[in-house]
Design goal:
The protein is of the alpha/beta class. Helices cover about 45% and strands about 10% of the residues. The protein has helices at about 5-15, 35-45, 55-70, 80-90, 105-115, 130-140, 150-160, 185-190, 195, 210-220, 250-264; strands at about 20-25, 50, 75-80, 120-125, 145-150, 205, 225-230. It starts with 5 loop residues before the first helix and ends with a helix.
Length: about 260
């Protein structure tokens, strides 16, 4: 029998008790799951609502843009990535002052859920085990339960839940838009329009450990106004909570195809 993480055990307990739960699924989900079948599977499992975290990412963008407008000479390291946040805290403490104070898409989506459905517990489903640290250490007050895509597959298998079209009565209860691009490296700057507003000297898009360390080492010496940075190579589409045989380019195409459903 597969070993269960504490978060999986907690979610199974919540489902057994029929607690009020709202799922929020990260925008990298098309790499692992089909839409809208994933919505039907989650509701069959026991979730009352299913939110697209790219909707919360729109709030993140608004907060980043607002911060830049209020401080035209300011410099921002914008990252929804808890691994980057922890790397800066531990290895580059002199850069903490530049870390964006914007909510991550996960936290922003949880706030939307708690505002709309205050009796429901938000459950984040995504590609990154480090989001568990964000929920537990940084945003305790939001009471977010975090599981990875691989852990969700584990639960589906245990409960014998299939992703069938016939189980789908509707799509997401709240959808995202341009921010469906968020899991791709540069998704924040592209979906917010900042890549069109800032020059090459003012904006840098970085992913992957070697590039991350280089860019953070250089930040104090360059003229960047925005560093759009993610830890995993290629962005969240390459997170450790994803199990997929697809290469990075194929994963990017999955995300772009889902985004294209909105922009058409």
């Amino acid at each position: 029998m597969e070993q269960l993480s504490p978060e999986v055990k907690e979610l199974l307990n919540c489902l057994d008790k029929k607690e009020k739960l709202a799922a929020m699924i990260a925008p990298s989900f098309p790499i692992c799951f089909e839409y809208p079948q994933i919505v039907g599977a989650l509701k069959k499992m026991g979730f009352s609502y299913v939110f697209e975290v790219s909707r919360g990412a729109a709030e993140t963008n608004c907060q980043v843009l607002d911060s830049m407008e209020k401080n035209a000479k300011g410099r921002i390291i914008a990252s929804p990535c808890p691994t980057i946040v922890r790397l800066i805290r531990q290895k580059y403490p002199h850069l903490i002052q530049f870390l964006s104070k914007a909510d991550s898409p996960m936290s922003a989506t949880a706030k939307l859920i708690l505002e709309k459905y205050p009796d429901y517990r938000p459950v984040f489903i995504g590609p990154c085990p480090a989001k568990k640290l964000e929920a537990r250490e940084d945003r305790k007050e939001l009471n977010i339960l975090v599981i990875t895509y691989m852990e969700l597959e584990q639960i589906f298998k245990m409960k014998k839940i299939n992703q069938n079209k016939q189980d789908v009565l509707s799509g997401f209860d709240i959808i995202g838009s341009e921010t469906r691009l968020y899991p791709i490296s540069g998704g924040l700057s592209q979906s917010s329009g900042l890549n069109d507003k800032l020059t090459d000297e003012e904006l840098d898009v970085v992913s992957g450990l070697q590039n991350v360390n280089q860019s953070l080492n250089d930040f104090s010496r360059n003229r960047l106004k925005l560093l759009d940075i993610l830890f995993c190579d290629g962005g969240c589409i390459n997170g450790p909570g994803i199990k997929s045989d697809l290469n990075l380019e194929a994963r990017r195409k999955k995300i772009i195809n889902h985004w294209a459903k909105i922009v058409k």
